[in-house]
Design a protein that fits this description.
The chain starts with 10 loop residues before the first helix and ends with a helix. The protein has a 3-stranded antiparallel sheet. It has 16 helices and 3 strands. It is mainly alpha-helical and about 425 residues long.
Length: about 425
């Protein structure tokens, strides 16, 4: 039988194979370049949208950190003030008399009402505080800087369009004339808005502050941290180091992972049904808010804790057991300290999420209008995201800038907390 032999490939066949491979490589390199371009484009687009978001918030809110004040010459009239009536005297009347002395030609009732509207209703409280702190001021005429009304504040900051007809403006022409006179006499100026950081909520925009919301957030997060951190660590250690591997622990792990993805408002409904309706705890209190946010934060801390414990090499456990340590000693003295940086990172991220939540707290009544600054865990309170929600629903232009300013404060806290988590991870993370 004759055997047919295939001739070896010649140079032409080799060149065709090389050309085919080169053409394929060119297409693959082209796809890779396009993929990189799409990735860079996505990053650039996200950064642009983020810059637009931050720019919009900052451009609307930075003016809230300044407040317009008017200097009045207040006569602490002895006929109105006496050592016995300092707490209940008519300080609003003293402010009105000061304005009338500055503009003696204002006699009509309608014009008087507009004149009194130049200053905030908080001016009387400022004068009252001076009289209570220094009773010797009775009988003297002293210059007092009082907060201006929110419309005058917006006018001072350039947020009013003065080209529209008077009927379409909140500021009337006569008030504009008084405003210009105050400017010419150096009786009106912008100062740092301490009220925004030291006062609670108010119906008047120029008197509204975030101090009450900040304290409510502080007490709420303190309860959340005190409960979620030890419970989360204990759960992660037990599930990872001590729990037997069976269908029950598998079921628990699946449920923990599912709870981490549950919408936050579901936890609010749970808190409403259990903590308020069943246990009868006080509504709109940081204690209840902390309990609800604990339920929401626990899955995040448990998952982060288990991942950190899994990252510790088995050789650490074997070495500890080999020198005679018990399993509890091995976990507490060797494994847990090495996993603690990752656990702290997950805890900070969970707390940052809790700080920005509002939906579950709305369900337990923390949407109430709270003027007083809370002094404890059971006092009525609100939190910063809910305060932003309430102000965003107000029609006044002054509340728009305070909404954006409060959002800037909240974003600053979130950025600091996330940056702390990154720094802790970078500083204490170990590469095995």
């Amino acid at each position: 039988m004759n055997r047919i032999s295939t001739p070896p490939p010649g140079p032409a066949r080799e060149r065709r194979a090389i050309d085919t491979v080169n053409a394929s490589l060119a297409r693959r390199y082209g796809r890779e370049r396009r993929f990189r371009f799409y990735g860079v484009g996505a990053i650039v687009a996200s950064m642009v949208f983020l810059a637009i978001l931050f720019g919009s918030i900052i451009s609307r809110g930075y003016t809230a950190f300044q407040q317009t004040f008017i200097r009045l010459d207040i006569f602490f009239d002895p006929a109105v003030l006496s050592p016995e009536t300092l707490a209940t005297a008519d300080y609003s009347g003293l402010v009105k008399q000061s304005l009338l002395r500055m503009f003696p030609d204002v006699t009509a009732r309608n014009e008087k009402r507009k004149l009194y509207g130049l200053v905030s209703s908080g001016a009387a409280f400022k004068v009252r505080g001076m009289a209570l702190n220094s009773p010797q001021t009775i009988g003297q005429t002293l210059p007092v800087w009082v907060p201006a009304d929110d419309d005058i504040d917006m006018l001072m900051k350039g947020h009013f369009d003065l080209d529209v007809p008077e009927a379409q403006r909140r500021i009337k022409d006569v008030q504009l004339a008084w405003f210009e006179r105050l400017q010419n006499e150096d009786r009106i100026e912008k100062r740092f808005n301490r009220i925004f950081f030291t006062a609670g909520d108010s119906r008047e925009p120029e008197l509204a502050g975030i101090h009450g919301a900040l304290m409510g957030s502080f007490y709420t997060l303190l309860v959340t941290l005190a409960l979620s951190f030890p419970i989360g660590i204990a759960s992660a250690v037990y599930l990872e180091e001590f729990a037997p591997k069976n269908r029950w622990t598998d079921l628990i792990e699946v449920n923990i992972n599912n709870l981490a993805a549950v919408p936050s408002i579901v936890f609010g409904l749970l808190g409403l049904a259990v903590f308020l309706n069943f246990f009868g705890l006080p509504r709109s209190a940081p204690l209840v808010g902390g309990l609800v946010l604990t339920l929401m934060t626990l899955p995040t801390i448990i998952i982060a804790g288990r991942a950190s414990l899994q990252s510790v090499p088995p050789s650490i456990r074997e070495a500890a057991l080999g020198v005679g340590a018990s399993k509890m000693q091995m976990v507490l003295h060797h494994v847990l300290p090495l996993a603690l940086p990752g656990i702290l990172t997950g805890t900070i991220i969970g707390m940052a999420r809790a700080l920005g939540e509002s939906a579950p707290l709305l369900m337990i009544g923390m949407v109430a209008f709270i003027v007083d600054v809370p002094q404890g865990f059971t006092d009525p309170a609100t939190v910063l995201p809910v305060q932003i929600f309430l102000w965003a629903d107000s029609p006044e232009r002054a509340f728009v800038e305070r909404t954006s300013a409060a959002t800037m404060v909240l974003l600053a806290f979130l950025i600091v907390m996330n940056a702390t988590a990154v720094i802790l991870r970078k500083k204490f993370e170990r590469r095995w």
